[in-house]
Design goal:
Elements lengths: L1 E6 L5 H9 L3 E6 L26 E4 L5 H7 L5 E2 L3 H8 L1 H11 L6 E4 L2 H11 L3 E6 L8 E2 L3 H14 L4 E6 L4 E9 L4 E14 L3 E13 L6 H5 L5 H6 L4 E9 L4 E7 L6 H8 L4 H10 L12 E5 L1 E2 L18 E2 L10 E3 L3 E2 L7 E2 L6 E9 L2 H14 L11 H14 L7
Parallel strand pairs: 1-2, 1-3, 3-4
Antiparallel strand pairs: 5-8, 6-7, 6-8, 9-10, 9-12, 10-11, 11-14, 12-13, 14-20, 15-20, 16-19, 17-20, 18-19
Length: about 425
């Protein structure tokens, strides 16, 4: 197939590499040209995507391109982004209201456009809250407070520095955080999977939120109670608006309830790479059949679990664009291009005048992550740790408590009966 990839940054380049290795003709472009060196020498140079009529499939890996994607859909099978999905992710209020429309429970919440009103509200209620920007891509401003006083201090500091017009305060719910994803096509849903992800950079859940420090993904053979009480409620409403592609519900699970927190109606890095290793069919075919509305019978996964741990060097996660800070050309020994089928690569390129030597491209410091498979979560992480041991990269770092933390969360879900068939 001729496939066009519209990539927000470097995260989706590895997917392009896998599609090219599967025999597809891949055209791709980065919305941010800063990432153009990622996987250079391994992929052809980024090239403009031709007219949609000449392509078999167009893929948007991120939210924010809804208008363009919606214009393409009538003429070319398209995965990712739409005016509807953009609203789900970027407009917190719209996302929460859609959960409520689907019958998914959500923690109590209030919307604000004035920080003074929010401060008065917090001081009056004295509850613990989570702040979420709405209608903005400033997701880094999302904050889980320790208590009401902590949130007051955060808001006072935040609005001295940030321009956030609207935001939501949502009551904090104590429980186990887990994500559930499905792929929706015209008349079906398929590839249901669950992800447990650690978002904080440092062991002990310390440091900044880096999106993902490590994760585990599994595809249950049957729909679980967790899926049935949460994301499954959105199948009919999503099909009713013509949604096609992946959608993830991030949730908090207590002893008795599944509380929806936020939507991810797009590829979710790093979990998408793990899902690709679990899927028993080629990813390009999977994307195409989802886009055209086929009833996709995925079948059993290749392995019960896939796992990964993010590897990085400075300046990650505080990415900078100053050439004196970014580390370009750092050797990546212990990894060859042939092994990139099982190693998700990001800030990586082929060294000039070499067919085998890899080095950093100097874009972010996020090297990538090895992908391990196993009969259990711990076994999958053993493969990951074995891959890390073979690497020799100066100043390489990673979070070293990922396997134990994720296995503990999985055990909590299992004890609560949430992973049993529905």
């Amino acid at each position: 197939m001729r496939i066009g990839l519209v990539l927000a940054a470097s995260d989706g380049a590895w997917i392009g590499l896998q599609l090219a290795r599967a025999g597809h003709e891949v055209f791709y472009t980065f919305a941010d040209e800063h990432y153009a060196q990622c996987l250079s020498g391994l992929l052809p140079e980024p090239r403009a995507i031709p007219d949609a009529e000449s392509l078999d499939l167009v893929v948007f890996d991120f939210s924010g391109y809804g208008k363009v994607a919606d214009e393409l859909r009538p003429q070319t099978p398209t995965i990712g982004s739409s005016a509807f999905s953009d609203q789900l992710e970027l407009d917190r209020v719209a996302g929460i209201r859609f959960m409520e429309q689907c019958g998914i429970k959500v923690p109590p919440w209030e919307e604000f456009d004035n920080p003074a009103d929010a401060l008065s509200f917090i001081k009056k209620t004295k509850k613990r809250y989570v702040l979420k920007p709405s209608g903005s891509k400033e997701c880094a401003a999302t904050y889980v407070s320790k208590d009401s006083d902590d949130m007051v201090k955060y808001i006072e500091l935040l609005f001295k520095r940030a321009k956030i017009e609207k935001f939501v305060l949502q009551e904090f719910v104590q429980g186990t955080e887990v994500s559930t994803e499905m792929w929706v096509s015209r008349d079906s849903y398929h590839a249901v999977n669950h992800t447990i992800e650690l978002k904080k950079l440092l062991a002990g859940d310390l440091g900044p939120n880096c999106g993902c420090a490590g994760s585990a993904v599994w595809m249950p053979v049957q729909d679980t109670k967790l899926f049935a009480r949460g994301l499954k409620n959105a199948v009919a409403p999503l099909q009713g608006v013509g949604f096609a592609g992946p959608i993830d519900l991030n949730a908090i699970v207590t002893e008795s309830e599944v509380y929806g927190l936020e939507w991810t109606p797009r590829f979710g890095y790093d979990a998408t790479a793990l899902l690709m290793r679990l899927l028993p069919m080629e990813f390009g075919e999977f994307l195409y059949r989802t886009a055209i509305g086929d009833n996709v019978n995925v079948g059993p996964s290749r392995s019960p679990f896939a796992a990964s741990i993010r590897l990085y060097i400075s300046p990650y996660p505080l990415e900078a664009r100053h050439k004196s800070i970014l580390q370009e050309g750092v050797p990546i020994d212990g990894l060859t291009p042939k092994e990139l089928d099982t190693f998700y690569a990001n800030d990586v390129r082929l060294r000039a005048n070499s067919d085998e030597e890899l080095e950093t491209a100097g874009t972010s410091g996020f090297i990538g992550h090895p992908i391990g498979l196993g009969q259990t979560i711990i076994q999958a992480f053993e493969e990951v740790k074995a891959s890390i041991k073979r690497l020799k990269i100066p100043n390489l770092a990673w979070r070293n408590d990922v396997p134990e933390k994720i296995a503990k969360r999985y055990a909590e879900l299992e004890r609560g009966g949430w992973l049993r068939p529905s």
